[in-house]
Design goal:
By secondary structure, the protein is mostly helical. 98% of the residues lie in helices and 0% in strands.
Length: 85
């Protein structure tokens, strides 16, 4: 009789431990999932910021290239005028 009661108590203890382990595992899984989501959101924001910076640099390069081309054209006109004289 004592063996049966001890066996049942042991079985109840194992089941109880399994439930606690499952709860801890679920909590850990949720925590990891939340952390991954936060990291993805942060990375997404950084990518968006980097994309904006790249666009700004591209616009700046276009503007400077256009200004440089205008100066080259002005220089070419001056050379043509000097050659005509």
């Amino acid at each position: 009789m004592k063996k049966i009661i001890l066996s049942l108590a042991f079985a109840a203890l194992i089941v109880s431990c399994q439930e606690k382990t499952k709860e801890k595992l679920e909590d850990a899984t949720d925590a990891v999932g939340n952390e991954v989501e936060q990291k993805i959101d942060t990375l997404s924001q950084k990518i968006d910021t980097l994309g904006q910076k790249i666009d700004n640099v591209a616009d700046s390069v276009k503007s400077k290239t256009k200004k440089a081309a205008e100066k080259v054209e002005e220089g070419a006109k001056k050379v043509k005028e000097a050659v005509k004289k």
